[in-house]
Every structure is written in C-alpha cells, then in structure tokens.
C-alpha cells in the first residue's frame, strides 16, 4: 500500500476515534490518561501498514502498556538497532566487493551514509518520544529515514542478484518506520482533537450565565463536533469496508470539515472569544484538508492505493 494512503487512513481513524470515544452529551470529562495498546487499536492500525504481520507482532508485545512513551520509545529503539545491523552488514559487503565493481561499491557507500543518517535521526527521535508535543518532529525524522532507505533500495535493486539480503533488511526497516509514523499520527491527531474539545468545554463551564450569546456559541460548537464525529466515523467505516471507494471517504470527511468550519465561524463572531480555540479548530479542519487532498490524488491516479 502507498505510504500516503496509510497516512490518510491513520489521520482519519484517529480523529474519528478521538471524537467517538467521548461522551456524546454536552458534558465532557477531562480525561488525560495515556492511551493503552489494545487488541482493537492493533487491529485498526496494522492492516493498513506496510507489513501487517510485523506490525501486529511488535505491537502485541506492548498490549496493556501506554502507546506513549513505552511503545513508541521501544519501537524507535528497535529501529535504531535494525539500522545499526543493516549498516554493519552493508559495510561488510562493501569491503568484500572487488575493485572491478566500482558501481556496486558506490551504491554500497551511499547506503552506508543513508543508515548513518538514519541512526542520527532515530537518536534525535528517541529523546522526544516521551512527550506528545514532540510527535510532529518524531514523525518528520521517521519519514526522512523511510524515504532515504527507499532510495537505498532503489539503488541496490539494479544489482538485485548480489544485494537481495540488504534489500530485505531495508524493507524491514521501512516497515518498522511505518509503524512509528502511524503512532505519531495517532498521537498528534488525538492530542489536537482532545485539546480543542477540552478548551471549548472548559470555556463553556467557566463563562458566566449573563454572557448568554457566547455560551450559546460554545453549545452550538459542541453540537457541530458531535455531527463531525459521526461523519468521520462514517468515513472510517467506509474506508475499512472498501478502500477503493475513495469518493465516499472524501464526502464524509468534507462534511465533517464543513461542521468544523461552521464552529469556527460561530466563534469568530464573538469579540471576547479566545483566538486559541478558533485556531485549534482550524488545525482539525486542516487535517481534513490533507485527507481530501490525498483522496483526490488517489482518485485521479496520481497516487496508487495499491489495494486489490
């Protein structure tokens, strides 16, 4: 499956999950507990990763443990170990490759540099893996190393008969990386959705009754979020049932974005409305825009969904 499609699904899944797991009434509990790795979470994520079996194998080891930091930190550590092992293997092959094969030696050299960079990226990622606020940076590190290792694979594919073992190692590293990216997307979207809802509910509870107009705007926003959650859940189910029906996914997400934007407009009418709430809502709207863009790219053939 194309990595972009994985991202699309994970963003969609996690925004939907963040909304639908909350009470659908007007009362929200401020739940700050860390999300745990569960069978349900594993079975939602892994079928859409690059290697579902590997994903399930690794995530199952952490059932009942916090996604962040425990699971994420351990997966980054695993990626580091794999990067070091692959780098050592390629270095050994480079030394054994005869001088009369300069092209192959050059490709090995490039891959050695790729894995040296991957180790640096993973070292930086692991330092931030205990805090939701760092997930965006961790995702960037993971995406960079996945892209670089893919380039290494393409280089070595030109000498397939002599590099099959390394190509297999590259594939394994990319698969581990895709799980890390998935966790980061889950945390980022979930954290953003939770932050926005918490802000709205806190302000709704603290606003004095005499400011009935502002209080009414908050209540309307909460109803908008409830409708958006239903649309996102519909998109999630549609994609899970038939990933080829991208049009339905786009329609559901577009409807949810419309609800979020309506909330944004409602709050913007209030002079005393804190701008950070409207900003948080806009971020969720922007996540939806990414999904719609990816759906358009898939439907026009610019991105292959690679689903059968």
TrEMBL record:
Transmembrane segments: none annotated. Pfam families: PMEI (PF04043). The keyword Coiled coil applies. InterPro entries: Invertase/methylesterase_inhib (IPR035513), PCW_Enzyme_Inhibitor (IPR052421), Pectinesterase_inhib_dom (IPR006501). The keyword Transmembrane does not apply. SMART domains: PMEI. One of its GO terms (molecular function) is enzyme inhibitor activity. SUPFAM superfamilies: Plant invertase/pectin methylesterase inhibitor (SSF101148). Keywords: Coiled coil, Disulfide bond, Signal. It comes from the Eukaryota. Residues 222-273 form a coiled coil. Residues 1-18 form the signal peptide. Residues 37-183, 184-294 form the Pectinesterase inhibitor domain. Belongs to the PMEI family. This is Plant invertase/pectin methylesterase inhibitor. The lineage of its organism: Eukaryota, Viridiplantae, Streptophyta, Embryophyta, Tracheophyta.
């Amino acid at each position: 499956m194309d990595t972009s499609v994985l991202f699309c699904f994970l963003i969609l899944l996690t925004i939907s999950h963040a909304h639908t797991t909350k009470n659908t009434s007007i009362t929200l509990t401020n739940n700050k507990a860390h999300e745990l790795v569960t069978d349900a979470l594993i079975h939602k994520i892994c079928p859409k990763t690059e290697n579902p079996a590997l994903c399930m194998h690794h995530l199952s080891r952490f059932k009942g443990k916090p996604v962040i930091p425990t699971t994420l930190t351990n997966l980054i550590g695993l990626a580091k170990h794999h990067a070091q092992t692959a780098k050592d293997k390629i270095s050994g092959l480079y030394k054994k490759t005869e001088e009369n094969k300069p092209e192959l030696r050059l490709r090995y050299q490039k891959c050695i540099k790729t894995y040296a960079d991957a180790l640096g990226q993973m070292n930086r990622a692991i330092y931030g893996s205990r805090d939701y606020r760092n997930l965006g940076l961790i995702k960037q590190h993971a995406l960079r190393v996945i892209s670089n290792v893919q380039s290494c694979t393409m280089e070595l594919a030109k000498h397939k008969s002599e590099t099959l073992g390394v190509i297999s190692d590259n594939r394994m590293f990319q698969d581990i990386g895709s799980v890390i990216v998935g966790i980061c997307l889950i945390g980022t979207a979930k954290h953003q959705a939770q932050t926005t809802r918490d802000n709205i509910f806190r302000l709704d509870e603290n606003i004095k009754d005499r400011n009935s107009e502002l209080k009414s705007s908050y209540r309307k926003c909460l109803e908008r979020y409830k409708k958006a959650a239903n649309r996102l859940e519909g998109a999630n189910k549609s994609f899970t049932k038939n990933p080829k029906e991208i049009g339905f996914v786009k329609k559901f997400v577009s409807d949810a974005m419309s609800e979020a934007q309506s909330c944004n407009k409602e709050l913007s009418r209030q002079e005393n409305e804190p701008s950070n709430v409207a900003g948080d809502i806009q971020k969720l709207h922007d996540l939806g825009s990414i999904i719609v863009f990816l759906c358009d790219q898939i439907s026009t053939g610019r991105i292959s969904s690679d689903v059968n």
